[in-house]
Amino acid sequence: MPAFQRLTRADLDRLTRAELQDRIEKESAYWDRKCRRGLSETDAAAHREFGEILHAAIDPGASLAHVREYLETGRDNGYWDQRPGQR
User: Fold this and answer.
1) Are 16 and 81 in contact (CB under 8 A)?
2) Which domain of life does the UniProt lineage start with (predicted)?
3) Nearest-5° angle of CA 20, CA 22, CA 71?
4) For residue 15, what are the domain limits?
5) For residue 9, what are the contacts with CB-CB under 8 A and spacing of at least 6?
6) Within a 10 A sphere around the Cβ of 67, how many other Cβ atoms?
7) What is the pLDDT of residues 6-34, one digit of tens each?
8) What gap in Å lies between CA 39 and CA 23, rounded to an integer?
9) Does residue 19 lie in a domain region?
């Protein structure tokens, strides 16, 4: 049993990106270790699900827009305070 609670799609609606960050790091480390040993089909499906959740949480386009706006104007557009599932 992992020493963390796996992320779910519901977490994207419930938590902000800042709140998700620590959980993403812990689950990512878990999958890094697990992938070295090989994955069962069930684990591979769970790993793919984590990848999809990670991509939704980070949202590369929104992240880049946040950085660009901050560098150009010095204003924080609230990217880290947003819930990824609540667009």
Assistant:
1) yes
2) Bacteria
3) 75
4) 9-75
5) 53, 56, 85
6) 12
7) 999 999 999 999 999 999 999 999 999 99
8) 21
9) yes
- Compute how many other C-beta atoms are within 10 angstroms of the C-beta atom of residue 75: 9
Q: Which of 9, 10, 11 is nearest to 22 (CA)?
A: 11
The DSSP secondary-structure symbol of 3 reads: S
Residue 30 counted as domain residue: yes
- Please name which of 20, 32, 5 lies closest in space to residue 59, comparing C-alpha atoms: 20
How many residues does the structure list for the chain?
87
Q: Residues 18, 30: contact at Cβ < 8 Å? A: no
Query: Do the Cβ atoms of 34 and 4 come closer than 8 Å?
Result: no
Query: Does residue 86 sit within a domain?
Result: no
Q: From CA 29, how far away is CA 70, in angstroms rounded?
A: 29
In 1-87, where does DSSP find H-type helix?
Answer: 9-14, 17-37, 41-58, 60-73
- List pLDDT tens digits, range 35-59: 888 899 999 999 999 999 999 999 9
Residue type for 75, please?
R
